[in-house]
Amino acid sequence: MQSPGSTQLRWIQTRPEPVATLAVLGSGVATTAGILHPADGSVLLDGPLACVGDGPAGVDVIGRRGADGEGILFEAVDERTGQPTGLVIGGAAAGTVGRASGSCGIRGGQGDVVLVTTSFTSSDSLVPRRQAIAYQVADGAATQLHAATIVSCPPSGAVYSAEAPAISGAYLVGAGSTCPGRVLQAHDLRTGGLVAELDIGLGRVVALDDGPRPGDQSLAQALVHDGDVIQLHALHVLGGTPQWIGQWAHAGTLVAVGEDVAGIRPPGSDLVALVDLRTIDGQVRAMADPGVPRDRVRQHVVDDAGRLLTVADEPATLTVVAPDGASLWTVDFSSVLGGPVSGVRIDHVGLDGAVYVSGRVDLGDDPSWFVARLDDGGPVEPPGVLRLHDPTDAVDLAVDVCRRVAPTPASAARVVIARDDVFADALAGSALAGPDGCVLFQSGGASLDRRTLFEAVRVLPAGGRVYLLGGSAAIAHEAEADLVDTGFDVVRLAGDERTATAAAVAREVTATREPTVPGTAYLATAEAFPDAVTAGAHAAAAGIPLLLTAPDALSPATATVLEDLGITRTVVLGGEAAISDAVLAQVPGPERVAGDTRYGTAAAIARELWAPDDIEGAQLVAVDAAGSWRAASAAGPLAAARGTPQIGVAAATATPDSLVALGRVGGRRGAAADGRGRIAGRHVGGGRAGGHRHPLSAPPMIVT
Length: 704
Prior knowledge:
Shape: globular
Distance between the termini: 28 Å
Structural class: alpha+beta
Strand content: 35-45%
Largest sheet: 4 strands, antiparallel
Number of helices: 13
Helix content: 10-25%
Number of strands: 43
């Protein structure tokens, strides 16, 4: 491997037959030859796989081709072990849909619904077709909801998504260029019925996503190649009427599409323009130089972080360019693998930046096919643990966490928005958001950050409730107007200072949520965040208001709200340095929950507020960095949804207090968050608690 950086070959698996990586799931690295451990490539599940995908709570779904090569059988595997659970979800058997002639696909759909697709040829026609079958998975059984042929002309259409932000529970289908009528379709996930259809004319859909992208409440966005021009369009469904809305056009060849970035090579150039798909005018982030002429390029990929990855032939190399155009590293495969290499292809890029490649290598008398993992040499999470990718800012992080709390469109009860530069307003937000809401951030400026607005559109039903924490100095009136104009029910909760804002939030929590322990409030210092963010998860789960005070004197706004709400039990968080005994003496029914350090207090919160017998692990948040409150605040509702205590830890080292707390709560499954991507991978716990059961309560997770 060549410079720069510490990128290394993590592992390589060779096979006597062609092999490729399909996806990285909770259960491990899924390949066409089986499921491998992400850290060392060891085999967890042997046997050929045709396709894989996310399933309902705690399971992944695999598709196996029949022994005779006909039909696909879909079954569930445990996310923690990679082993079959015994649940057969269903199959596209030879007798029902004909011979499986191509790929299959799996899309985790709306909650308990899984959508599977297969290519097939029927007995009365040699024309390849594609079928979509939806199954409802509940109580250990799978029930078929519908089966429909979705495209009837070659090449068979691709199912792009099982979710859409404007229509809850829709999947999208794009037809190929040889179809008589080139269309984009949206089908209802549970019934299979056609929701919307649009003729795209002479253009050819080369990429399709379920958004959100520029344009409020867009159902989908498509990159359409018409001659030498790439155009971005958004398909809106407004009152049932679809329409194309052109956004921008660039001349050149579309070479790759990522989450937020498209790679377009201008005519006659070896460079690649990295175009930001989130901008109305198609802003070019950078002109990336892949380091090889275009006639040597075998493949371009843009990953979710916006990096451009390029595979070249003769010799086989991989180059990686940062979103700003800076060269990161280059790999010479023949040098790394110790023999002549050909046919290299990037199969998958993980959220952690790991690159999974496949190809052919001559290591002796007979050539071998291989799959390999390349990464930066850092710790690798075990199967069943998901670390959300490290974002560049708090807005992206909060959106990412919200998609875990409420993966289905229009499924959140409320959204809470706080400023991202000062922690005080956000501290009480978890209790208000609850286990079925999200904490999002405003990044500054007058207008609401478009990413936050798009996520609110996705996650809330029409007219849903949005709370703004803090006055106009924290979140501008213009941002509030953006939400009102979009149709949301907007409520601003604010006070003259931070403890007064927390008091206003506490009144709303009491008015709108049913606490598990009536008459109880949590009280944390207003001068630091660690105690409040670790208790915030339980406040969110239990519907208990969280108040703030100055360390040495009970804040007037807090004293007033304690009396007005009839609080009879005040759980004081932290030791005397956080909240003095003088303050303790002024609150009703005081109980101090504290340790010798911030980590000790976090451990005490997990031990004393949560019921150890009712949980199996913990969600970890870093509390040793100035900005880590953002990740911890956003992750509070996630911990509440999963039923796991949120334990504050040091980012790089497990303190004795943290280890004791993990031991008390189980330490088998869990999550971690720090907003910087540096929590040690061995801080792993997890589990459930209370009555709110969430699809993510079973699989472990790392949130960064």
